[in-house]
Each structure stands twice: as structure tokens, then as C-alpha cells.
Write a structure and sequence with these properties.
The structure is a single chain. It is globular, with a radius of gyration of 17 Å. Helix 5 packs parallel to helix 7 and helix 5 runs parallel beside helix 8. By secondary structure, it is α/β, with parallel strands linked by helices. Strands 3-2-1-4-6-5-7 form a seven-stranded mixed beta sheet, sandwiched between helices. It has one domain: Spore Coat Polysaccharide Biosynthesis Protein SpsA, Chain A (Alpha-Beta Complex), CATH 3.90.550.10. The chain contains eight helices and seven strands; from the N terminus they run βαβαβαβαβαβααβα. Helices cover about 40% and strands about 15% of the residues.
Length: about 240
């Protein structure tokens, strides 16, 4: 079995090399191989040089958008290049620990689940600011009320899917609304979300964190909009 690890990046030259080394060295469930798909979303800070260096490795595939469109657009581009049985999203910073891959992928490999989220809150979500924690709680509450998701962390970046399911979703996200959109659409299709506790080490704006308060507003609106909008899987998926 193959795991496609999609890493959307934008101006991450300070941390990207460390992230890629950890991703490439992280253990996987027995019987799994990996492909790492790095999507450079129009970086201007030297990130492309780091991506090019790692792309020389056979398990790394690099693609680039010349213009910065947003994390959601980068993930959607990465999905089109994914050839694995499973798809896992990895941020291009050090907030999340690739050593959690085995835990995240185990329910997929054993066919116990088709969608797995890594929840930051059982471990306390170390360093997360109160405003971010409150926004996460509100978005999770909305997901649970609107979609009976029964989850504790809607906005976690660590999301893993059976590839055929993720590829079937008609995603339109551009920025950080990937999380609410994919949550809404997998639930509307009836897929249960299994949560696994993960480790987390929050970073701030000065460290390069790009999400802002207005992205939370967009995320909430996305959850509401997807509840009433027509939904159909992609033709041929």
C-alpha cells in the first residue's frame, strides 16, 4: 500500500528542510510505502530551492504554482498528483509531528475507517492561544451540530483519507476553508470520522503562521453553506 503525503508550502524556507527530513524518516504502518508531494504555492523566499533539492529523491514529487492561491488550492493540486491508496495532509512547519503517522494511518490500513483526523486537544494543544482555541471550539461545535460529526478538532491539519474518497469530493477551497469543506462533504456522504490523539506544538504569526481571524469567519460560513448546497461526487470517481 502507498501513502501520498501532500505538503502545501508557501514561504517556509526556515523550516521546510527539517519538515521534509522528518516526513521522509517517519515510520509508517507495516507494508506501506510513501510518496511525498510538495506543492509550492508561489513562494518567493527561497523555498523553491529547498523543494528542488529534495525533489531529487525518488519518493519526492514537486509541483509549483507560479502565483500564491492559498492552502486549499495547493492541497487540491496535490490531490491530482497523488497516486497512493491513502492521502495524508502535512503542514510545512513543525507544529505537527510526523511520528504520529503510524497512529493516523492504522485505522485506514486495517479498514477500520476511511477518514481519520488527528485531534490536538487530548494532549492539551500546547502553546495554542486562547483566541485560536476558542475559534477551534466554535468550528468543532458547528461541525457537530450541522453534520453530527462527533469530533473534537475540526480544524486540525492532520487529516488522512482513503484516496478514492478524497478524490471523489467536489472541492472548491482556496485558502484555509479546506478543513470545513472536506469535513462537511465527507459527512454529507455518510463517512464516519475517526479521531486519533496527536502531539502539537503551536507557533505564532512571528514564526510564520499564516491563518488569521477572518479565516475563522470564512470557515464557519463554509460549514453553513455546505449544509444546504447541492452535493455530488465527481463524475467517474
Amino acid at each position: 500500500m502507498k501513502v501520498s503525503i501532500i505538503i502545501p508550502v508557501y514561504n517556509e524556507r526556515n523550516l521546510l528542510a527539517q519538515v521534509l527530513e522528518r516526513v521522509l524518516a517517519a515510520p509508517l504502518p507495516e507494508g506501506c510505502d510513501r510518496e511525498v508531494i510538495v506543492v509550492d504555492d508561489g513562494s518567493t523566499d527561497g523555498t523553491p530551492d529547498i523543494v528542488a533539492r529534495f525533489a531529487a529523491r525518488p519518493e519526492v514529487h514537486a509541483c509549483r504554482s507560479e502565483t500564491n492561491h492559498g492552502k486549499g488550492s495547493a492541497i487540491r493540486l496535490g490531490i491530482t498528483h497523488a497516486t497512493g491508496d491513502f492521502i495524508l495532509v502535512q503542514d510545512g512547519d513543525l507544529e505537527y509531528d510526523p511520528h504520529d503517522y503510524v497512529k493516523l494511518l492504522e485505522p485506514l490500513v486495517t479498514r477500520r475507517a476511511a477518514v481519520v483526523y488527528g485531534s490536538r486537544f487530548p494532549g492539551g494543544a500546547r502553546g495554542m492561544k486562547f483566541a485560536n482555541r476558542l475559534a477551534n471550539r466554535l468550528l468543532t461545535l458547528a461541525a457537530n451540530l450541522l453534520y453530527q460529526a462527533r469530533i473534537t478538532d475540526e480544524a486540525t491539519a492532520y487529516k488522512a483519507f482513503r484516496a478514492d474518497i478524497l478524490k471523489s469530493l467536489p472541492l472548491t477551497c482556496r485558502r484555509f476553508e479546506f478543513c470545513p469543506e472536506v469535513t462537511a462533504k465527507v459527512r454529507r456522504l455518510g463517512h464516519r470520522i475517526v479521531e486519533i490523539p496527536i502531539s502539537y506544538n503551536a507557533r505564532g504569526v512571528v514564526d510564520g503562521k499564516k491563518i488569521r481571524w477572518h479565516d475563522g469567519v470564512v470557515a464557519l460560513w463554509t460549514l453553513i453553506k455546505c449544509r444546504v448546497a447541492p452535493l455530488a461526487v465527481k463524475p467517474g470517481a
